[in-house]
From TrEMBL:
It comes from Polaribacter porphyrae. Residues 24-43 are annotated as: Disordered. The keyword Transferase does not apply. It holds the Pfam family Cytochrome_CBB3. This is Cytochrome C. GO terms for molecular function: electron transfer activity; heme binding; metal ion binding. Keywords: Heme, Iron, Metal-binding. Residues 65-148 form the Cytochrome c domain.
Amino acid sequence: MPDMYVSVPYDVDDADGLNNKPVNSKPVAGTIPRGGHPAYDIPDTPDGYEKSKAELKNPLEATEENLENGKAMYTIYCTSCHGKKGDGKGHLAVTEKFLGIPSYADRDINSGTIYHVIMHGKNLMGSHSSQLTYKERWQIAHYVEKLRSDLVK
């Protein structure tokens, strides 16, 4: 059973498909994935970051419920690096496991860039798109904007 040790990689989307039979594993154009939200198609590039800053708007209202859940998700996924206040003084930064984590007050960010960074990551921060739902990402964006405004005061 050598295939059990060295598996044969197949690219089912190439010209030959799988076993010389074409396979269309890509979603049909115009379809919306489960959850009802379109795919995020802004690329992980400097131009993509600028596009998210200029064009991406938070579709959720900044209600108490959204801010409360944004805070809960931020506490789980973000405080260890970014700190409770968003000042870049989370446990991993203070113990010097990661250096150079910025304060939100020092960054020209908005909800679009926050969402973009959650989706793609930036510098040492990896993507958190698989850990958070569409709605949770936007709730965190609201909460980070609130933290930033508190720091800038």
